[in-house]
Predict the structure.
Amino acid sequence: MPKDIDWKNLGFSYIKTDKRYISYFKDGKWDEGTLTEDNVLHISEGSTALHYGQQCFEGLKAYRAKDGSINLFRPDQNALRMQKSCERLLMPQVPTEKFIEACKQVVAANEDYLPPYGTGGTLYLRPFVIGVGDNVGVQAADEYIFSIFCTPVGAYFKGGLQPANFIVSEFDRAAPRGTGAAKVGGNYASSLLPGKEAKKREFADAIYLDPASHTKIEEVGAANFFAITKDDRFITPFSPSILPSITKYSLLYLAEHRLGLEVEEGDVYIDQLDDFKEAGACGTAAVITPIGGIQNGEDFHVFYSETEVGPVTKELYDELCGIQFGERQAPEDWIVKVK
Ligand code: PLP
Ligand code: COI
């Protein structure tokens, strides 16, 4: 029985669900893992995750499809990215098969929390790996936890397909050769203050420029940036310090193969916004959020409109969500069925 939740008005906040998956790494290997009702972790005060940020996480969603089945969107890509994050922070990798199997178990065990088809809601999965155990020196832990919880969510940026405005931050979220491309907590810790300052000024979030020259757009809060040029190309930044967004790579494919656009991963200069007729933020949580305007110092640049989504952005949104909710044909291997 679906839970008594106001599915159509879900925001992006934590709702405790019934079961989560947990697996321990000890003596050089992962155990099989189990589902548990306990949503509290009991870990050593010396855990490296607490002191030295030795942790990483992922974000992906389960979708109730029109035919009643349940879809995961490209979970293999999240598994691969988490393996890269683990490698960067000297943590043991979770094999792809174990990762996907755990995602399936968590969704199946919490099916009552999966928003019904047509409400726009989804079940957000949050896998994470943390360094635990009795430690104090700056070095990698010997013991780890891999866990996945889930929570029903709606739009991340208020309004969903309503355009949102963003402001260029004076802070960096990551260093040029740091951990920007890994999904590790440290990048998000450094984004808390800029994000808060942006919201205080009524912007949806901060935009981060490249940390080496501060001339190019890198990230839009916890999402990647894309734009449609006036000559109809899909462009998105390429940089070693941004998170390689699975949504972004999916849009690059769909823009080229479904919309017939030329696509490019390259430099997006903050002083060349006039080249674009539409812009957006993309990510698992953000889905596609149209960017109304960008404040950069004294300048405020409006793209398509501050109140309406542009036609290309809308087409991309329909294509992406259509695939995720099982309404449109998915490219091979993009959808993994839970049931
Ligand atoms: N950039 C950052 C900093 C993020 O936190 C996220 C969210 O995962 C993204 C981009 C989008 O990545 P994805 O599309 O894989 O969710
Ligand atoms: C996601 O889109 O999954 C993210 O990780 C964003 C999140 C930090 C809210």
The pocket of pyridoxal-5'-phosphate (ligand 1) is lined by residues 59, 219, 222-224, 243, 245-248, 283-284 (CB under 6 Å). Helices lie at 48-51, 75-88, 96-109, 185-200, 246-257, 311-324. The two ends are 16 Å apart (CA to CA). The mean pLDDT is 97.
